[in-house]
Amino acid sequence: MTQHSVHHATFTVARHYGASPARVFAAFADPVVKRRWFIEGEGWTIDEFTPAFMEGGSERSRFRFGDGPPMRNETVYHEIVPDERILLSYAMITDGKRISVSLATITLSPAGAGTKLVYTEQSAFLDGADQAAEREAGMRDLLETLAAELDRQSAAAA
User: Fold this and answer.
1) 44 vs 27, 62, 66, 67, CA distance in Å?
2) Angle 52-49-32 from CA coordinates, rounded to 5°
3) In the Cβ-directed half-sphere of 25, how many Cα atoms lie within 13 Å?
4) 103 burial class (0-12, 13-18, 19+ CB within 10 angstroms)?
5) Is the full-model pTM beyond 0.90?
6) What top-level branch of life does the organism fall under (predicted)?
7) Which residues contact 66 (CB under 8 A, 6 or more apart)?
8) 117 within 8 A of 14, measured Cβ to Cβ
9) Are 89 and 75 contacting, i.e. CB atoms less than 8 angstroms apart?
10) For 46-138, which CATH superfamily applies?
11) Which of 60, 66, 83, 150 is paired with 158 by a 20 to 30 Å CA distance?
12) How far is the C-alpha of 77 from the C-alpha of 59, rounded, in Å?
């Protein structure tokens, strides 16, 4: 008999960007831009990215790192307040096994000439297949990739 477990965790990551809340929000809303910073990266193979950035929208991505197992991210957007807030839930599936389900809130607020983004995630990690510290580190990396994307856009506009 398989022993099942669930571990609950909450973490918050705050990040400042030198772009306006509207530009940061657009990086989530524009499917081409989001794909660049959210799912693409060195060593990753993308099998599917089906964005649906709207309240009630279901977004799906399938990918793998190197020769690793196939992974999926299934996201549902519950509330979108342009330039201010995104509320979503998502499940992570690795090699056909659901490893976590999370509720995430992203808030954007003006901060000087830029934006303060606060990302809060409440997660249920299933059967020891994932850990809160790994997820938080992954989110910090994604938010750094978003910063690089915003910087790239600024440089291209100059």
Assistant:
1) 20, 10, 6, 9
2) 75
3) 16
4) middle
5) yes
6) Bacteria
7) 43
8) yes
9) yes
10) START domain (3.30.530.20)
11) 83
12) 8
Size of the chain, expressed as the number of residues it contains = 158
Work out whether strand 71-81 and strand 85-94 pair parallel, antiparallel, or are unpaired: antiparallel
Per the listing, tokens 């910090």 go with: 140
- Which amino acid, 13? V
Strands (DSSP E) found in 18-57: 44-50
CA distance 20 to 87: 20
pLDDT at 41: 82
- Letter string b/e over residues 17-43, b meaning 16 or more CB atoms within 10 A of that residue's CB: bebbbebbbbbbbeeebbebbbbeeee
